[in-house]
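Q&A log
Question type: sequence-to-structure
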Amino acid sequence: MMFMYWYRIEASFGRNSLVGTTVRNPEDLPEHLVADEKHTRILGDKTYVATTVGNGCVLGASIAADVGEESLTRSYGIFKDETQCIKPGYSPKTVNTDGWLSTQNA
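Response status: OK
Response body:
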């Protein structure tokens, strides 16, 4: 029986909702967000972390393979999916982005 406990712990690494573990009350979801990408490297390969921030707190961070619109939409979509689990229909009033067209479209 103890084996199954450790198996579930190991199998669930990385599956927690960043938004769900940070925001306890759905009404505390921020009205205004900032979205931007951080350029970094994973095992020497250039990659990007799509970050979503609101109320001075990082609420979303997801790896994007490139800075194309499709990849960024998929990465920022993780934040969107997590917020919908907490408060269906949630939509921020504003999202501040840089001038990068792919970020604005995502």
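Response note: The chain has one domain: 25-105.
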